[in-house]
Design goal:
284 residues; alpha/beta; eight-stranded mixed β-sheet
Length: 284
């Protein structure tokens, strides 16, 4: 039986996901593969390195430094997220990732990215967190449109994986996974409305990506419909916020970040027995 874990993005709503993942690790729940989208990828790698609490720790510690995340970084570097801080200083110096555990963990980890040339999603293996190309794919997955420069890897421009495949459930069904756990960062019933405007202005050199981005809201809502149906049919297991998370994409309030994380833990603990049953695991 093959199991997969799919992590939706959502900026700092990803602290909810961090709470979910820490609870899964605390209860020794492992999977064969993880697919992280945007913040789901950036925070999800800690599941493979088995570093419980790391996401919450560094976000609370560095939340107030506006140069790292927000308008100051955007004006200075052209990216909402500081490449130097998040992909060099933080993982290798300030709150070091456990690369040995990461490499030795048999769980495969994939970051979902959007190819600007094709307007399609790609699923990139993050097999080594000290590999510069792997880290660039991670950065691309979390690089939001309009407020990030395209990340060029092997002469191909990439951005946020959530544009082309926000919840890659179908991809993992097609790959033959028997059990799929989906972690969402929006409560039940949430749907995006309307179209995203000005895509042609920003991405005139990438017409296929521009069209995908323009219609992202429609595609996202159809993915939510699919998730709901698969959940009802008990083909997948969904963990989602039981209440609305009022949090900004670049949230700096430690209280709000902690609250999102705590909700993720609570919701997962409340569903643990159901999850064991779904995975056909004996938790005694």
């Amino acid at each position: 039986m093959k199991t997969a874990l799919i992590l939706e993005g959502g900026g700092m709503r990803g602290l909810y996901t961090a709470g979910v993942l820490d609870t899964l690790m605390e209860n020794d729940i492992s999977v064969d593969a993880v697919a992280g989208v945007s913040a789901g990828a950036l925070f999800g790698i800690n599941y493979k390195s088995k570093q419980i609490g790391r996401v919450l720790r560094y976000n609370l510690k560095y939340a107030g430094i506006s140069e790292n995340l927000g308008v100051k970084s955007l004006l200075k570097t052209g990216d909402l997220m500081s490449k130097q801080f998040y992909f060099d200083d933080l993982p290798y110096k300030l709150d070091v990732m456990d690369d040995e555990t990461y490499r030795n963990n048999p769980t495969e980890f994939y970051a979902v990215v959007s190819n600007l040339n094709t307007g399609l999603a790609e699923y990139k293996s993050i097999y080594d967190i000290k590999n510069s190309e792997c880290m660039e794919y991670l950065r691309a997955s979390g690089s939001l449109p309009f407020v990030s420069k395209p990340v060029i890897i092997n002469n191909i421009p990439y951005l946020d994986g959530g544009v082309c495949d926000s919840i890659p459930v179908q991809n993992y069904i097609d790959k033959g996974y028997d059990k799929i756990i989906v972690v969402l960062t929006r409560p039940s019933g949430y749907r995006k409305k309307g179209h995203i405007h000005f895509t042609k202005l920003f991405y005139k050199n990438y017409p296929l990506f521009s069209e995908t981005l323009k219609n992202r809201n429609h595609y996202y809502s159809s993915q939510c419909d699919l998730v709901d149906k698969l959940e009802t049919d008990k083909r997948i297991f969904v963990i989602r916020p039981t209440e609305r998370i009022k949090i900004k994409t670049t949230e700096k309030s430690r209280k709000i970040l902690q609250k999102a994380y705590d909700l993720g833990k609570k919701d997962t603990i409340d569903k643990l027995n159901e999850l064991y049953d779904y995975l056909e695991v004996n938790n005694e």
